[in-house]
Amino acid sequence: MVRVLRSCLQSILKLVNSVIGMSGLAMILYSAWMIRVWQRQMGELPFGHDSDYPPPWFIYTFLGLGVTFCVITCSGHVAAETANGCCLYLYMLFVVLLLMLEAAVSVDVFLNQDWEEDFPKDPSGNFDQFKNFIRSNYEMCKWIGLSLVSVQGLSLLLAMILKALGPHQYYDSDDEYALDRVPLLKNAPPQYVVVDPGYGHGPKNDAWIRNSDKTNR
């Protein structure tokens, strides 16, 4: 029963964790699009050190979040597959840190009226476009954000339950394997070994053959 429950939890954790990975891939694709727009407008990549423009921190942030989500997804799949305690602890640590970061940003946005001043000016203009998109589609963005946070919380809960169930019980001992099959050996028929008298050579074997011939006569 525990083995079946563990397998179900592993499958559900992989499925839920895949949602985080798809979100990370979407962020990376959006970052690639923003990099392409920056290159088309400025004539250079935003990662150049000798650029005359200030660095577009919004592109860096989105790209970093996308890569972070993908790393968390990979660690979650490894933890779900192996059910190892260290992997599960590391995965839970990543998810908790991500939730704390999201909570800090959310609190700053909702409680601080001048939250926009906490962020530097974005020369690419993508930050302003992102804000306008959220304001014009607030209900949709709200449910998307809540769904993503719920998925992260559910993955954390599943990892905790999987850690409480413990790792897989693998077969280690040959003695235990043999003891389980001893009753089968008791019912096995006796084995006879037929030895050819002429197989060996020597005085003892020759004397035994002569005695056998005399007995038969």
UniProtKB/TrEMBL annotation:
Topology with respect to the bilayer: Multi-pass membrane protein
Signal sequence, start to end: none
Protein localization: Membrane
Pfam families the record matches: Tetraspanin (PF00335)
Transmembrane domains' residue ranges: 12-37, 57-76, 88-111, 143-162
Keyword terms: Membrane, Transmembrane, Transmembrane helix
Domain of life: Eukaryota
Gene Ontology CC terms: membrane
InterPro entries: Tetraspanin/Peripherin
Protein name: Tetraspanin-19 isoform X1
